[in-house]
Design goal:
alpha/beta; 7-stranded mixed beta sheet; about 45% helix; flavoprotein; NAD(P)H-dep_FMN_reductase
Length: about 200
């Protein structure tokens, strides 16, 4: 089977961050289970462009390239820190500027990090419904990492969840037809039509 592409979205704000650490673990485990190319996207690097997109209605060239990578990916790993019992504003904003059909049918593993295990429910009451609304195919296993998981170097329970989620994502990606790159010779969409779509 041809090699597929996984895009990893990390909404961590610090560098390094536990959010990126969890993203790395999930990406590495997925690559052990399937032939995939992995691309990492740190949302903090695009925060200004995401905010400007809300104001102007158009992405910068850099942000547009990231959005196109997500549209063309065969699968997605999406990790956010938990703030106020939900995903971060930066995380939500990124998916708000992504067009509504970009994730339709696309396999996604969701994960989150936080200071306490109490916040793990945010995966099920906030993140999973958001991706269901976007018509993504969300893997059954979600992964939450609390501060104590990193204090012990990542306990075996976290490692087990990472492996299970990565295996589920790999299986979902391999079951799905490969995403086709857009035809560069396809007739372009008229500007008036693009503008009307932005206004709707």
């Amino acid at each position: 089977m041809s090699e597929r592409t996984i895009v990893v979205i990390s909404a961590g704000l610090s560098n390094p961050s536990s959010t990126r650490m969890l993203a790395d673990r999930l990406a590495t485990a997925t690559a052990r289970n399937a032939q995939v190319n992995v691309r990492f996207v740190e949302l903090r690097d695009h925060a200004k462009d995401i905010a400007n997109n809300f104001v102007t209605g158009f992405p910068s060239p850099e942000l547009d390239e990231v959005l196109e990578a997500v549209r063309g990916a065969d699968g997605l790993i999406a990790i956010t820190p938990i703030f106020q019992a939900s995903y971060s504003g930066l995380f939500k904003s990124f998916f708000d500027v992504l067009d509504k059909e970009a994730l339709a049918g696309k396999p996604v593993v969701i994960g989150a990090t936080g200071g306490s295990a109490r916040h793990s429910l945010a995966l099920e009451h906030a993140m999973r419904p958001m991706f269901a609304y976007l018509h993504a195919v969300v893997a059954p296993t979600s992964v939450y990492a609390a501060s104590e998981d990193w204090a012990t170097g990542g306990d075996s329970t976290l490692a087990d969840r990472v492996e299970r989620a990565a295996g589920e994502l790999a299986a979902l990606v391999e079951q799905r037809p490969a995403v086709q790159a857009p035809d560069p010779f396809e007739e372009p969409v008229p500007f008036e039509q693009l503008l009307a779509q932005q206004q709707n």
